[in-house]
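Consider the tokenized backbone below.
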């Protein structure tokens, strides 16, 4: 069965004024039981045996990552825990006089996964793609200044704002919202700035 991909339009990331395109595979969920059944068709192990192995691997991976290890599984990839500050708290800072969080404020927020090169190569070898259409950006009906004011109103009620919050607030894609927030934060007149970096970057009201 051929997989389908969609050509998606994304906001300009380089300040050229032109949108860009990227390709995303159209995926359909495969349940745990369906995956086990597919493995059973190979005939090497029983259904219960496969479930037992998968359960054991999941349990021991969680334990190993919780103890500070990264777990490499040959032919699949490497897994490690991702940490972050509790969602109800502002990120920590290094500046003198800034509030420092206690250890209990830091928690596991997700699992980082880096695919094994052999897995990527095997997937590419087995994959036969066909076009599933084109997805264009939805243009917001509000002006940039109106959206900036929406962000300021949100931040007057909340200590911080994430890109996902702004995307929901302004009815934009996550990519477009992130690009626009960076523009707003780069302009001091908007009253919006940021703290943190990377996946721990949050937007706040600037101090006047």
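A designed sequence for it:
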């Amino acid at each position: 069965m051929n997989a389908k991909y969609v050509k998606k339009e994304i906001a300009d990331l380089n300040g050229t004024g032109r949108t860009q395109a990227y390709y995303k595979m159209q995926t359909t969920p495969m349940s745990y039981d369906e995956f086990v059944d597919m493995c059973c068709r190979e005939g090497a192990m029983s259904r219960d045996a496969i479930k037992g192995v998968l359960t054991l691997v999941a349990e021991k991976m969680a334990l190993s990552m919780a103890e500070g290890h990264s777990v490499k599984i040959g032919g699949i990839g490497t897994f490690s825990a991702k940490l972050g500050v509790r969602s109800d708290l502002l990120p920590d800072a290094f500046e003198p006089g800034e509030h420092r969080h206690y250890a209990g404020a830091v928690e596991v927020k997700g699992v980082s996964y880096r695919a094994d090169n052999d897995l990527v190569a095997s997937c590419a070898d087995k994959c036969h793609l066909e076009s599933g259409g084109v997805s264009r950006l939805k243009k917001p009906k509000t002006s940039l200044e109106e959206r900036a004011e929406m962000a300021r109103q949100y931040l007057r009620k909340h200590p911080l704002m994430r890109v996902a919050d702004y995307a929901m607030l302004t009815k934009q894609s996550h990519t477009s919202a992130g690009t626009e927030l960076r523009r707003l934060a780069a302009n001091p007149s908007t009253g919006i700035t940021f703290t943190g970096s990377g996946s721990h970057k949050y937007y706040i009201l600037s101090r006047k």
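The chain has a mean pLDDT of 87.
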